[in-house]
Amino acid sequence: MRYKLIIAILAAVVATSCFKEVTTDTNLILKTLVQEKSGGANVATADVFAYACYTGTDKWMVASYDDALNRIVTDSLGVEKITVPNVEGVPFVREGDENPYISLPLNSSPALVVLVCPQVKMYATMFKYLNIENLPESYMTLLLHAWKKDIYTEGSDKKGGVWHIVPPAPEVAPETDNNSNY
User: ∠114-115-119 over CA atoms, to 5°?
Assistant: First the structure.
């Protein structure tokens, strides 16, 4: 009888330990590097900020650098806008690492993650799907090629997501008035 009681107690302990909380929440830790010219050094930068909007679908976008800077995302039809992100990134320090990081605690999917680098007037977007269980932190490095002229992508779905990176808009020279009378 005593053995049956011990086995019942052990079974109860094992059964309760099987019901751990399962979560897909993650703390997205972003490190940003900037490459000013082709073949140049990849330099870590602290001149970035990031935010995320829980859009419910992947039919959302950032329409321009100014919208990225002002935290405005638009649906693909241009009808709805989100002007207040659900999550704002905060500085993050990794022990033993002097590189600057940004931390975004994400708890809904899909999240449109936006990273803005005013230093080079670039921004990047990514839809982050939270489909991996019990991963408290996800680390990602994003390389911004400031010398590129066209939109490009970095990353992969297998490694956590694909970044769509928008290079700086070309500088427009001010118009001169050729009809000036001096």
Answer: 145
